[in-house]
Fold these 2 entries.
Entry 1:
Amino acid sequence: MKVVCVGGGPASLYLSILLKAQDPARDISVFEKNPAGSTYGWGVTYWPAMLDILMAHDAPSARAIAQHSARWSDGVAHVRDLVTVHHGDEGFAVGRHELLRILAERAVDLGVSVHFGRTVAPGDPLLDADLVVAGDGARSALRDQHAAHFGTRIAAGRNRFIWLGTTRVFRSFTFAFAETEHGWLWSYAYGFDGEHSTCIVECAPDTWSGLGLDTMERGEALRLLEKLLAAPLEGHPLIGRTDVAGPAQWQTFPTVTNRVWSRDNLVLIGDAAHTTHYSIGAGTTLAMQDAMSLAAALRTPAPLPAALGAYERERKRALLPQQSAARHSAGWYENLPRYVGLAPHQMFALLGQRHSPLLPYVPPQLYYRVDRAIERTQALRSLKRWLGPRIARALQKD
């Protein structure tokens, strides 16, 4: 079997590892348009259970990822000049550059042909393979060539955000909410190695334009953000992208969905198939889980269309609660004024509940009191855990 993976992100590289480990006779190639080591993204997050899953699928790469990961066990929220801490929120982060290096080296060790600096566009002779995997991101060229067939929909989020780094090494997952004369601005920050942290900054469109961030040059924008986030940054600088010139790279988040995920021998994976808002910290995990599912489907002797159909059905089912959580999480931040006036400990509690499909419809103070009462009763806690995913699935289908 000859497999060509277009795009050298975590989904494509991990799929190549799993397929080659299953059957060393497979001819597998990965083509990435960017040069080796040029990735952008600072650090990516994953949760403790994911490390166990990675270990079960490919222990050598899992051990390397764990070795190069930073761990946190608390959540911290800065709201104006107040600080609230929530203990027990354990998670991990690894530099995206380091993650891709680990996966690429593991793939090459297994016999995968990994090519950097090579763009593979629709119609390229290199796509002559038994299976072509479109892992070329949310703006996938391979998918867009057949967008009508896939039923591709891309919905832009309302808020503006920018993905930055900083030399402040955050030991906890840290939220910071700063009030400006044009509205609120906030950040999510977490360390991913011993020298740097990711710092994502977000705000509403009116705040973005009111502060002048829509026209501000990169250096000026970073200095303003450093001033607004001075308390959590503790004097450390923010670092922008160095691979592009011009203004600061503000974006709106593209939520990608597809009605179907395959066409003949072409299959979508990772962000080409689906995206989930960065505020739930699951994008890389979901992409690698796509790879696990597709590799498992291709392990069976079933014909290729049946295998690709099984992969699509399994992943769509698994993604329903994650997509619901991401949608409600993004909505929580888009409606931040609804919650930011609460006492800091109450706001932080509802920040942790932002995935709830019920929260937007219940007054925040009432939701907080009811949720605290539920958490004190084992039977009600069990009912909440049972009912929550079912409500999410029902709302998702609507």
Entry 2:
Amino acid sequence: MFHVKLHRHDAMARDADEKLAAQRIRMPKRIVEKPIRQVAKRLLMALFVMALTVLIVWLDRGGYHDNANETVDFLDCVYYATVTLSTTGYGDIVPYSDSARLINILLITPLRVLFLIILVGTTLEVLTERTREEWRLNRWRKNLRDHTVVVGFGTKGRSALQTLLATGLPRDHVVIVDPSAKVIDTANAEGFTGVVGDATRSDVLLRAELQKARQIIIATQRDDTAVLVTLTARQLNRGAKIVAAVREEENAPLLRQSGADAVITSASAAGRLLGLSVLSPSAGTVMEDLIQQGSGLDLIERPVNKDEVGKSVRETPDLVVSVLRGHRLLPYDDPHASPLQLTDRLITIVRATAHGRPPVTLGPAE
């Protein structure tokens, strides 16, 4: 039985309304105008059509007959325009002159159709938008393969994702899972697809198409949640690369036993970087630069080129730190690291401007 040590200063559980939020997929929205602005615009258009109809009837009021008092005043014109545009047509005010009937045919009838289109337009747009979103969602599910699932879009999850984006990962190949609807709205605003729900539940992870994902980043607020998410994720996807973050170092073995390929202890890593910066501020700056992709020096993983096969690690154009051979990670000074083999992968330090966007691979070596 797992025993997870919890950080004493862990944040409390999220609000109940966010935990009970609908477990659904939210794709980045494509809204040109706010809904209230669209409704206000349609209302103004409807009022304009009605005012124009009243004006037309008022200018030709002599051609209309009122069964009540045989005269048509301004109020009668407004009344006639209202019942006409709404297709009610009580028949108490009717056009009897040829000009009035011609105007009804050429102007009033088109205005009536336009008025109805404006009124029904909002409902039609809602139905169209729902159909469009359903079509986008089905196409997204069908085409999504080898994507990245990020569980938890806090500071850790966001920073990890920014590093991957700096290496060229497309935003449409990322799915965010978080129990907070507000967090998912933020992710949508940044162009990511999000799933609202508890990631410890398999149905939520299935909504994120985790079973087809290539790499999974688990950056939850609590260590016990990270363990449960890792267990569930590994059960759904046996081949994906799972990287998880924990606060307490004592919990790292539990994450590995649960199926995580790599575990990062956030508190210890930050502490070691602080200690290194105290001993040597320049060394701390170099380490910070290495873990920040896209500028200065970058630490990348790449395959061995054909012209490098059989050579020593010191004969490569890049500064080799380690050699990944199968499941063994060999330091650069290990006698077994050289000569290089075609199936090896190299952990190297390169300049960001020299290599552009390196293909950092979190998944298994191909």
